Amino acid sequence: MLNISNRLTSYLFILPNSMVLAMTVVEAYAGGREKLNPPDDSSKLHPEVLSLINEGIAQNTTGNIFIPKDGGETEISGSPTEKAILSWAVKLGMNFELVRSRSKILHVFPFNSEKKRGGVAVKLADSEVHIHWKGAAEIVLGTCTQYLDSNGQRQSIEEEKAFFRKAIDDMAAQSLRCIAIAYRSYELEKIPSKEEDLDQWSLPDHELVLLAIVGIKDPCRPGVKEAVRLCTEAGVKVRMVTGDNLQTAKAISLECGILVSVEDAVEPNIIEGKTFRELSEKEREQVAKKITVMGRSSPNDKLLLVQALKKGGEVVAVTGDGTNDAPALHEVCIFLGCTVFRLKTPKNKYVT
Question: Signal sequence span per UniProt (predicted)?
Answer without folding.
Answer: 1-22
